[in-house]
Amino acid sequence: MATANAPGGRLTRKGLATRARIVAAAAELMFQRGVAGTSTEDVRAAARVSNSQLYHYFADKDALVHAVIEHQADEIINGQRPLLDQLDSLAAFRQWRDMLVNLQRQRHCEGGCPLGSLSSELAETDEPARTALAASFDRWESPIRDGLRRMRDRGELADGTDVGQLALGTLAALQGGLLLTQAKRDVGPLQAALDLAIGQISCHLT
């Protein structure tokens, strides 16, 4: 069996579970308090691990932050499946929009986007984190672009449709909508932003 100290950083099942618990605790705290407002001691207490355990898996807070970015991207993308992987019709986009709006309504419009919050705090001060966040947004954009490409390949969108631009615009609308929804404590901005994005897609229908 692989051990936590094995070459390549392979972990036992118990080690993987401990590491995942640390990352999940850090992600929740950083979402609530921000990165600057979350200490490694806070994470250690929330995850119920010792200092030696924490630093066994993460050399420093920067390494933990980067693990949190990956964790939040996984949570967002996996949480939106299978809808996110089936965005190849206007009906599917509207179903995805409804899911996102309902999710924010259930959360009482609190918190906004975990990746968006991390970007606001880190993009200008931590270049490796900014790069990781940009890659996470690319992961989120990719299934949107793939769905639009399938629509174009089936002839449902005009041949010259720039699906990359439409996908990027849709994700940008989603981020802006989440930010205003958080500030206003009202799902209206998110629904309006996504409706505009879907309306733009419909302009390219054949």
What layout of secondary structure does this protein have?
Layout: H1 13-33, H2 40-47, H3 51-57, H4 61-79, H5 90-106, H6 114-122, H7 127-153, H8 163-184, H9 188-202
Helix pairs in contact: 1-2, 1-4, 4-7, 5-9, 6-7, 7-8, 8-9
CATH architecture of the largest domain: Orthogonal Bundle
What kind of oligomer do you see? single chain
CATH class of the largest domain: Mainly Alpha
Task: Give the CATH topology of the largest domain.
Answer: Tetracycline Repressor, domain 2
Percentage of residues in DSSP E strands: under 5%
Number of helices: 9
The helix content is over 70%
Shape: elongated
Got a strand count?
A: 0
CATH superfamily of the largest domain: Tetracycline Repressor, domain 2
**How much is the average pLDDT?**
94
Summarize the main sheet: none
Radius of gyration: 19 Å
Termini Cα gap: 57 Å
**Topology pattern, helix = H, strand = E:** HHHHHHHHH
Please supply descriptive tags for the structure shown above:
9 helices, Arc Repressor Mutant, subunit A, Tetracycline Repressor, domain 2, 206 residues, mainly alpha, disordered N terminus
